[in-house]
Design a protein that fits this description.
The complex is a heterodimer of chains A (179) and B (574). Chain A is 30% helix and 37% strand. Chain A is an alpha+beta fold and 179 residues long. Chain A starts with a strand and ends with a helix. Chain B has three domains: 168 residues, Rossmann fold, CATH 3.40.50; 158 residues, Rossmann fold; 222 residues, Rossmann fold. By secondary structure, chain B is of the alpha/beta class. The relative contact order of chain B is 0.11. The chains are: A alpha+beta (179), B alpha/beta (574). At the A-B interface, helix 1, helix 2, strand 4 and helix 5 of A face strand 14 of B.
Chain lengths: 179, 574
């Protein structure tokens, strides 16, 4: 099953490589990966979707903690979260189907961000299922090109995942994994 | 204080207490070597960078301190790779300082440029590329800190040539170590200590699995006290040897693939396994689905990633072993396990009869004889450094080591060629001790160039080559599992006595058991490094053996009689 892992890492060169290399050498397959800055200077946030079972995910998290540049790791799967993926889709839009495409865009609350003679670029945000659904509907229309960001996730409620004062209790983690 | 990057490198090392380093100069680290004569650090010039890596590793294992190795960019650094991976697998603290081409040339395929941090990423605990002289000082501090704390391991620092040449103001105490993501000091939780104590008190057939963590945590005294107070027998991993005195009545010996039969039987019959700083390697467990199925398991471990990695445990205590045992000991009452200890004793069965030491003397020279005699003569006090293969297993079985940090071997990676350079490193760590390197004819030839290093340094290590004319362990597998098709295992070697001679060292050859003692005694008295070529039984095997994937009790045992068909090598070749 898909798990959404959030890793807060030091924002220095090579960290993405360290994380990606770990997934490769420990035989984990990345479904999607999104990296960007956070509210804290010097800290980047990686949102990694990985298809794996529960036990392996616990192992993966402890492997991630072995990386010196990894500050905190959370498995947000099953928690109350807002998940967003952004896709830009270039579709065929000529005189015949233009109205139809615009209708679909409207229903999905997507946006047309570029219009050319025979094509649109459509921007859509949402969780993965919504975007998958949108793509399925657009496919018969004729998708020319597509790009997706991969999921980003924030937990609902007022608390941050990380504050510089908090230290992570890995002891607690070990107890949780000891079954 | 205004210093060049090269000066900062040496000054940092001195501040870390480094007295000896192993290395090889080249184009990119010329500035570092140019600065070396101004500092009070002994540099050992190796013959191949792999040798430097193993020496620094052997030094670290024998001293408990951080080892240091130097290499230049490109091929210098890539030659370190096997040694870095060896240190990584066995959690040995070594700092590797490699040089990189000028920072402006990085990425342009410059002469002797290699992406060393990229290459060593999966085989180091952490690594750094330093392109600015201002970063050298604090990076080295972090490197030493990371290498020796938590679960130790190798750290590599790659420094560009311009960073070595440039100068900077350097105040070594100005910056504290800031590593946001690195938390090596996990403390055991109180509730878990109590659970462990309850499990210990209720166990009828407990067993300690003594791992390398005992030595690394310095928990030797605590483990001894715990074993004695709770009357719990101790089984050792290969790297755990010397963490608990071999001669102690509660010590059973080595577990696993080449562990003694009764040790593996005891593990399979136990009702409580106490895993102290070990990681359930596949060479230790056999088939994991059938591993110690009757036992509850407590795992005391510093590295969270090891918990439930291979064997699911009932209780995991994350933390330093010494600290954890101190807390457990506070609450542990004395126990008695007479029945259990008697039962284990009975498991010994025919084992001692099968022991090669007790088979009738046929005049054949067996490797086990050599190691057993060496153990007797040195009274078990030598630092024993092994290579990899049969020589390593026989050393583990027959050199009963009582002294901590005196059994040195490449366990996890199983690196042939480790023995000689690691032995040289160990000698630098404890010059007052007697160091013996045990290797096969194959492994010795992988790094025999380092004899030249030993000769140049004028240090004394004694090298016992158990020469059977085969890559013995592979041959053994071919005998057992591949219908005796000896594909690419017979090996013709040079005259090792002449090799020693060519280095200005002493060489000897021994072909009969009667000459073993004299040769060992002569070697001990001779000044400088000595090489003894022991021509041992060609087709002897290490027994018992648990085949890969088998349950621990499924062992191939040594036949009860020596077959007459076995050729005596001295007759064949000597």
């Amino acid at each position: 099953m898909n798990h959404t892992i959030v890793a807060l890492v030091e924002d220095i060169p090579g960290v993405l490589n360290r994380v990606a290399s770990l997934f490769r050498r420990r035989s984990f397959n990345i479904e999607s990966l999104a990296v960007g800055h956070t509210e804290t200077p010097g800290v980047s946030r990686m949102t990694i979707v990985v298809d794996s079972d529960e036990t392996s995910i616990l192992r993966l998290i402890s492997y991630l903690y072995k990386l010196v540049n990894v500050i905190q790791v959370e498995d947000l799967t099953g928690r109350a979260c807002v998940t967003r993926d952004l896709a830009m889709i270039k579709v065929k839009a000529d005189v015949e189907n233009r109205a139809q495409v615009m209708q679909i865009v409207d229903v999905f609350r997507a946006r047309i961000v570029d219009i050319a003679n025979n094509s649109f670029i459509i921007e859509i945000t949402g969780d993965e299922a919504k975007i998958e659904g949108f793509i399925e509907v657009l496919r018969p229309v004729g998708i020319i090109e597509m790009v997706r960001t991969g999921s980003v996730v924030l937990e609902r409620g007022g608390n941050p995942l990380y504050s510089s004062e908090s230290t992570v209790d890995t002891g607690e983690f070990a107890a949780a994994t000891a079954g | 204080m205004k210093l060049t990057g090269a000066q900062i490198v040496w000054e940092s090392l001195i501040r870390e207490g480094v007295e000896v380093v192993f290395g090889y100069p080249g184009g990119a680290n010329l500035p570092i070597y140019d600065a070396l004569p101004d500092f009070n650090i002994h540099h050992v010039l190796v013959r191949h960078e792999q040798g430097a890596a193993h020496m620094a590793d052997g030094y670290a294992r024998a001293s408990g301190k951080v080892g240091v190795a130097f290499a230049t960019s490109g091929p210098g650094a890539t030659n370190l790779v096997t040694g870095i991976a060896t240190a990584m697998m066995d959690s040995i603290p070594v700092v590797f300082v490699t040089a990189q081409v000028n920072s402006k040339l990085i990425g342009l395929d410059a002469f002797q440029e290699t992406d060393v941090t990229g290459i060593t990423l999966p085989i180091t605990k952490h690594n750094y590329l330093v392109t600015d002289v201002k970063d050298i000082g604090h990076t080295l501090r972090e490197a030493f800190y990371i290498a020796r704390t938590g679960r130790p391991g190798p750290v590599l620092v790659d420094i560009t040539k311009d960073a070595q040449q440039n100068t900077a103001e350097w105040d070594p105490d100005s910056e504290p170590i800031k590593l946001r993501g690195y938390r090596p000091n996990d403390k055991p939780a109180n509730s878990e200590i109590q659970k462990a104590v309850d499990m210990i008190h209720s166990a009828k057939k407990p067993l300690i699995l003594a791992g390398h963590g005992i030595l690394q945590s310095g928990a030797i005294k605590e483990v001894l006290e715990f074993a004695e107070r709770t009357q719990t027998p101790v089984a050792q991993t290969l790297l755990g040897l010397s963490g608990f005195p071999a001669s102690h009545p509660l010590n059973l010996g080595m577990m696993g693939m080449h562990g003694e039969a009764w040790v593996n039987h005891a593990i399979q019959d136990a009702d409580l396994l106490l895993a102290f700083g070990m990681r359930f390697d596949d060479r230790v467990t056999g088939d994991i689905r059938r591993y110690a199925t009757h036992a509850r398991k407590i795992h005391i471990e510093i590295d969270p990633a090891e918990i439930n990695k291979v064997i699911k445990v009932d209780l995991a205590i994350l933390g330093d072993l010494k600290e954890t045992l101190d807390q457990i000991l506070e609450k542990t009452k004395p126990c008695k396990h007479t029945e259990w200890l008697d039962a284990i004793n009975e498991m010994k069965g025919t084992s001692s009869v099968r022991d090669i030491q007790n088979l009738p003397d046929t005049g054949h020279l067996y490797a086990a004889h050599v190691i057993n005699d060496l153990w007797n003569i040195t009274k078990g006090n030598a630092v024993l450094v092994t290579d990899v293969g049969q020589n390593q297993m026989w050393s583990a079985q027959y050199y009963k080591q009582d002294n901590p940090l005196q059994f040195i071997t490449s366990g996890g990676l199983g690196t042939m060629g480790f023995g000689l350079p690691a032995g040289i490193g160990a000698k630098f760590a404890c010059p007052e001790k007697e160091v013996w390197v045990i290797c096969g004819d194959g492994g010795f030839q992988m790094t025999q160039a380092e004899l030249s290093t030993a000769a140049q340094e004028g240090i004394k290590v004694n090298v016992a080559i158990l020469n059977n004319g085969y890559l013995g362990m592979v041959r053994q597998w071919q005998e057992f599992f591949y219908d005796k098709r000896y594909s690419a295992t017979p090996m013709k070697s040079p005259d090792f006595v002449k090799i020693a001679d060519a280095h200005g060292l002493t060489g000897m050859r021994v072909t009969t058991r009667a000459d073993v003692e004299t040769a060992i005694q002569t070697a001990r008295k001779t000044e400088g490094t000595v090489v003894i070529d022991f021509r041992v039984e060609k087709e002897d095997s290490v027994y018992p053996m648990v085949p890969t994937g088998a349950e621990l009790k499924e062992m191939i045992r040594r036949p009860l009689t020596v077959t007459a068909a076995m050729p005596v090598q001295s007759e064949v070749e000597a």
